[in-house]
Amino acid sequence: MARERRAPDSPLPTEQTRSQETLERLLTAAELVLRDEGPDGATLRAIADRAGLSVGIVYRRFPDKDTVLRAVYMRFFERSAAANATALRDPRLSAMPAGPLARRLIDGAAAGYRTHRRLLRALFMYARNHDDPEFQRRAELVNAAAFDGVAKLFESRTREIHHPDPAAAIVFGLRAVGAVLQDCILFDPSGARDTERMLIEVTRMFLNYLGVASESRVL
After folding, report:
1. Which domain holds residue 50?
2. Which residue of 37, 148, 193, 207 is most buried, as measured by CB atoms within 10 A?
């Protein structure tokens, strides 16, 4: 019988509950090291030390450092996508006009970036510098999931949007917002000191691009 093919960012198989707990312990330790030391400092030795385990145990689960970091990346963003999906089901969001909805969601995204600033910066740097197209494809898919739920909320408000192609504008506009938040919060050495002004302007940019009428905005 042919062996099941394992994804490059998957750890080696485990069978026991204790082994699964060890795996989670290693991934959590790797996440902390990545946050504190960046991709270059996230060595298997550093991860093992943070987890309080031997390097040999790390090698039983992961063949190399890159596999660990792939697994950390996918775990973090899969969990984030699940949490976002739950938050977007809040009925209060469904009742909001496009303007207040945009400000609420952009504020929430910025808060998440500030909370996980160092880890997100390390994860994005790792993904940007990775040369494996399969990993890039999987990373794009898991990141796109975060946009899908938000896009659907705005697609249900197309009567408020006066862009000639609302569906395309929503996707492009959300990507632009994400790029600004990443640049200003994650990669700006100042950490976006005037965050409130930045959030006002990026919300205005998004709503202007969509063609949302001024009376439905909250800025």
Report:
1. 12-63
2. 207
**For residue 76, which of 35, 41, 107 has the smallest C-alpha distance?**
35
Residue 126 lies in a domain: yes
Count CA within 13 A, CB hemisphere, residue 165.
Answer: 5
Do 141 and 191 belong together in one domain?
Answer: yes
Q: Are residues 33 and 91 in the same domain?
A: no
* HEC assignment per residue over 183-203: HHHHHCCCCCCCHHHHHHHHH
Count of domains forming the chain = 2
Contacts of 88 (CB under 8 A, 6+ apart): 149, 150, 153
- Per-position pLDDT tens, the chain of length 219: 444 455 566 665 545 677 888 899 999 999 999 999 999 999 999 999 999 999 999 998 899 999 999 999 999 999 998 999 899 999 999 899 999 999 999 999 999 999 999 999 999 999 888 889 999 888 888 888 778 889 999 999 999 999 999 999 999 999 999 999 999 999 987 655 678 899 999 999 999 999 998 645 555
CA 122, 140, 84, 11 torsion: positive or negative?
negative
